Amino acid sequence: MKVRVWWSSRDRQCWAAWWFALFLALVALPAAAVPGLESVLSPGKLVNAHVKWESDCARCHVKFDRTAQDQRCVDCHKEIAQDVVNKTGYHGRMKPQICRSCHTDHKGRTAQIVSLDKKSFDHTKTDFQLFGKHVKVTCDKCHDASKKWAQAANTCVECHRKEDVHKGSLGLKCADCHNEKSWKDTDFDHGETKFPLLGKHVDVKCATCHKDARYKETPKACVACHRKDDDQKGHKGFFGDKCESCHGAKSWKTIAFNHDVDTKYALEGKHRTTGCKDCHTGPLYKAKLAADCLSCHKKDDKHKTMLGPKCDGCHTPQNWKTLASKAVVGGARSAEGRVFDHSTSSFPLLGGHVDLECKDCHKTLLYKDAPKDCWGCHKADDDKSHKGTLGKACVNCHTERVWKNTLGRFDHDKLKFPLRNAHANPKISLVVDGSVARTGCKACHANPSSLRNTPTDCYSCHKKDDKHEGTLNTRCDSCHSDKSWKVAAFDHNRTRFPLTGLHVLGGAKNVTCKGCHTTLRYREAPQECVACHKKDDRHKLKFGVRCEDCHNVRSWDLWSFDHDRRTSYKLEGGHRVKATCETCHRRPAPANRATDPVGTVCVSCHRNDDRHDGQFGARCDQCHGVDNWAKVIQPGSRKGASQAFHQLDRGPSERRSTDAGATSRSYAFETGGMK
Fold this sequence. Notes:
Blueprint: H1 9-28, H2 34-41, H3 69-76, H4 78-86, H5 89-93, H6 156-160, H7 206-209, H8 222-232, H9 259-262, H10 276-279, H11 293-297, E1 332-333, E2 339-340, H12 358-361, H13 374-383, E3 429-432, E4 435-439, H14 458-462, H15 513-516, H16 529-533, H17 563-566, H18 574-577, H19 581-584, H20 603-606, H21 638-649, E5 667-668, E6 673-674
Antiparallel strand pairs: 1-2, 3-4, 5-6
């Protein structure tokens, strides 16, 4: 049976008034009392990890906004927030949900707010998925109880260091060989190393080459493993350590060495059936075998090396005794009728040389001693003509067909001095003292014995034509040409004194070369203005010799000098209007100076104008101005002016007005003027 409590109207009013008073009291509470109130309303104590914030509810809660609580969580747990943003870790891969759905607090100090169902936990949502034998491993094998779940080791070596038989020599990437199915079963691709396994190496066990589990230091050279094969059944080190040059990985006994391809010496004729040791009598790689015939066939050389080591010029590898049979074209026939192809030598036979017999040039059986230059055989012919004056390079002019005919063989344009214009005239002559002295080649080549030493500069031949007497150096071609010795035009802008303004030839003043160059020694012409215009200098050198500072080349009478910018003394008033340059600059300028130094104080120029005889000092500008010297800046009596200068003698603190009239004006000598 339910008991129903009836509230009278008066009772309802009392309870309503009581609750309203309680509400007003809570609202009126000061801010300092709120934490205490919140602690009263707390549903329970926080866990030990959060106990330091137990009195600071705002650390985790936002008043009247439960949805803002998640943001307060990630503000502290920044690593969780990073996982959520990057979609990594367990929290980054799980379905989005509020934090308190899994982690609730206020359940006491020892409450577990991180609870995982180890049987149903999905490890695929973490950064370390479980495969193979890792699936059956219990959590405590990898996760340390004193650390967070996410702080568990995630590299192989952190858990399997004691099982590392390599002692760290192969680094920390265990997964390159081992897998989760079985630690002892390795899956290693030897093809990714510097020694891929080929042929019979594929079936060899690892321990056969890798002794004592040493992998990185395992030698790669064949001889490191096959030394005993070479010592017992092989070459006993005679052919060096490069076994792979002949042997292959498929079969040790099968030789894959091709002498024709793998060396620079292809085997021909009887060389192909000759055994290796017949030629290679020393260590293969230490004693380099020569490739010339004479190295092996010296004992067969009946010529006693008189014909040199090139035996193959006559002999063949098919049969040493059978001489080479070659075409007679370009060859030479010996007295025995044997044929030698002279075109294969360094001196092929051409022209009249083809019909000569060997003994005509080869005086002895030492064939290589025969000279190859023309001079060796034709010196007697040269003695009848040039007598050695043109050197020994006969081929520059003579040919093999006809010795006496030089037409078309010699081309002067191929030399350093090609003949052009007047030099190319076949009737060229050298005129000396008005008469033809030499014609043809001898006009330039006066001494045939030093033909190649003939100078190529103009001055060597035209020295007597130089009217400048050597003052313009020996580069005659700078002005003259080989068409005509007379100068048609000269570009003065290429010199140190380019012509501008009235200096231009043929200009308004009709200037000529002789106007400045009084002699043909052109370089001696002065460049200074005063050298030519001294007679035009009406200043009588009072302003130095740098005329160009004021005058210009357009017109001598037009001059311009900015006294304000180019000097430290600015012209004002009468100095600018009435005074001339000579008014102040009266004496000639010293050497290397533009003007004679002039003082910048008034008395330097106006000492004769000083009626006061220096009684008022040298500061004339205190009373006088630049517009009118006779007009005093501050009109007044002699007494007033004198009084002003007496003020100058006093100290700054003692300067004061001395009469009733001074109240209307003051003298400010500090500023250099009167106000």
